[in-house]
Write a structure and sequence with these properties.
alpha+beta, 6-stranded mixed barrel, two-stranded antiparallel sheet, 54% helix
Length: 407
């Protein structure tokens, strides 16, 4: 039997019971559409998060104290940050921006909320790319005078002051009165937190007014030193320079009491994590594909039972074992492949419809690609082939005389 004859016969057999064929297709359609749409949403989220982190700059190094347990005081100080700008020992470091954060209660009139307050220096605005939409950023004078001033993220500004202009307004931070001197442009949420929901104040103000921990030496401790290097080509040498300066300052002869990571390492780690999440979503959606394959197997088993006499007649007329096998395998493959194509179209349509749409306060961005679509359709066809082999083999194994006697 020629392949064309097998195909025509398979289409004729499937078309003879359109309702049953449609129900068998439905499981594969839903499965493929679910896989494509969920992977598109996952990839879109991955691209958004990665692009937002990259917008902060890939030429950044993060210096943090080595954690040795709970409530361990930081080993990094404001003086350490200043020392990293030494043109002799660390010439590849262009700028540094130390930070010290804590969680506080904010009150403005009748509005109150809890948020993260980050103590920063003026360089923080340029090192971390925090443009101000209105007002001004924290200045060196504010840091020197331990001023109780604040620059609000766009979301926290709206939470506390609504649609009023916050600049010049007073509010309370843990009971202390602060004045708003600026509002940041919206940055959106990232894996590092919701940047629009933060409050920036002078780093000395956090240390002396809001943070309870103190060093016995009186030095201002910091949690992170953001170091901006002059060129990505100098990344390795910059790490060595920073490590050397800090080891000399801390008089270390053993292990480092600090860690140095790059923005690129953060991006790579994030991509690995989000890729695992995307695969996990696809695996969950793939369960429906498996269920669809079982449905095809069930339909094919019913079809073999109903067409037992037909199989007997065809074998009596000279049909070979492989002809019967190919017949039923082709029907199962056509079912799964057809459902896969329809499901791919539906999945792409759903992903495109969700792109840029807001649902529950969250804006979806989807990333549809040809490899996802091709993979889903291929898997659907393979599942149909796999689950169609047993019914086909059972049909091909029927003895002609027994098949003809079947009632």
């Amino acid at each position: 039997m020629s392949p064309l004859t097998v195909l025509i016969t398979a289409l004729s057999s499937l078309g003879s019971n359109k309702l049953r064929t449609g129900l068998a297709l439905l499981g594969i359609v839903i499965g493929v559409a679910a896989v494509i749409s969920t992977m598109a949403i996952g990839r879109g989220a991955q691209e958004v998060i990665t692009s937002r982190i990259q917008s902060l700059g890939t030429n950044l190094l993060f210096v943090r104290p080595e954690s040795t347990g709970q409530n361990t005081p930081s080993t990094l100080t404001l003086e350490d940050a200043s020392a990293l700008l030494d043109p002799v020992f660390s010439p590849s470091v262009a700028a540094v921006a130390p930070e010290l954060s804590t969680f506080v209660r904010l009150v403005a009139g009748r509005e109150n909320t809890f948020s993260q307050v980050v103590g920063v220096t003026p360089e923080y605005q340029f090192v971390r790319d925090y443009p101000v939409s209105s007002g001004q950023f924290i200045s060196a004078v504010h840091v020197q005078n331990v001023s109780e001033v604040a620059v609000l993220g766009s979301q926290i500004a709206e939470t506390l002051f609504g649609f009023r202009n916050p600049v010049g307004q007073n509010f309370r931070v843990n009971g202390r009165q602060f004045i708003v001197i600026g509002v940041l442009e919206s940055k959106g949420g990232t894996s590092l937190g919701n940047l629009d929901n933060q409050v920036l104040v002078p780093i000395t103000t956090v240390y002396y007014r809001l943070d309870s921990e103190r060093m016995s030496t009186g030095d201002v401790t910091v949690q992170t030193i953001n170091a901006q290097i002059r060129s990505l080509d100098e990344m390795d040498s910059s790490i060595q320079e920073i490590a050397t300066v800090l080891r000399l300052r801390h008089r270390l002869s053993g292990d480092d009491d600090f860690t140095i990571t790059s923005q690129q390492e953060t991006i790579e780690t994030l991509e690995e994590t989000t890729q695992t999440f995307v695969i996990f979503l696809a695996a969950i959606a793939g369960i429906s594909l498996l269920v669809g394959g079982i449905g095809i197997m069930n339909i094919m088993m019913v079809s073999v039972t109903e067409r037992t006499r037909e199989i007997g007649v065809r074998k009596a007329m000279g049909a070979k074992h492989r002809d019967i096998l190919y017949q039923f395998v082709s029907e199962a493959t056509l079912l799964s492949l057809g459902g896969g194509i329809v499901g791919a179209v539906l999945g792409v349509a759903v992903a495109m419809a969700l792109d840029g749409r807001s649902l529950g306060g969250q804006t979806f961005q989807t990333g549809v690609s040809g490899d996802i679509t091709l993979l889903a359709v291929t898997v659907a066809a393979v599942i149909g082939l796999f689950f169609g082999i047993y019914p086909a083999a059972r049909a091909a194994a029927l003895h002609p005389i027994d098949a003809l006697r079947y009632e």
